User: Which sequence fits this backbone?
């Protein structure tokens, strides 16, 4: 009987301990979370990831069909989602040939006019052509300047290196 009483007393003590554990509450907006996060808020959406899940932060540049230069920042994580942030510009913005500069300026002007007429800022958004440019488990954000891309890279790299919360906001709130 003694072992049974001891077991009963132990079970009662355990139940009392669990009964006193407070329920989890959501983190109020504008406060630190319980885990370190990298958060990028952009006009195209918000990207947020636990800093402990970041495996790599990279930046590289490439040409697309010889007409556009893309500078890209990638954040690889332990999960299955890859984040890409990129800036795109004409491949030859300073062509020595005057007609080259004029053609580039005209193309950019026409693209902007078309975007203005459509009511959508297509030139500033990520554009995908299914299935050739659709990448499963990839989220992409397009920024308007190299400065904005550099801000994202610096913030993500700091989060990765220091394992601390970092935030970057691009564009208007």
Assistant:
């Amino acid at each position: 009987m003694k072992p049974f009483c001891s077991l009963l007393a132990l079970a009662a003590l355990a139940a009392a301990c669990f009964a006193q554990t407070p329920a989890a509450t959501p983190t109020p907006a504008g406060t630190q979370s319980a885990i370190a996060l990298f958060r990028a808020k952009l006009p195209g959406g918000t990207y947020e990831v636990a800093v402990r899940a970041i495996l790599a932060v990279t930046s590289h540049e490439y040409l697309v069909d010889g007409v556009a230069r893309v500078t890209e920042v990638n954040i690889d994580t332990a999960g299955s989602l890859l984040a890409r942030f990129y800036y795109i510009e004409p491949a030859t913005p300073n062509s020595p040939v005057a007609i080259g500069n004029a053609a580039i300026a005209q193309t950019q002007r026409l693209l902007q006019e078309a975007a203005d007429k459509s009511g959508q800022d297509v030139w500033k958004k990520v554009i995908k052509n299914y299935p050739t440019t659709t990448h499963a488990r990839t989220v992409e954000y397009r920024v308007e300047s190299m400065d904005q891309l550099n801000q994202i890279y610096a913030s993500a790299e700091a989060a990765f290196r220091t394992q601390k919360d970092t935030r970057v906001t691009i564009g208007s709130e």
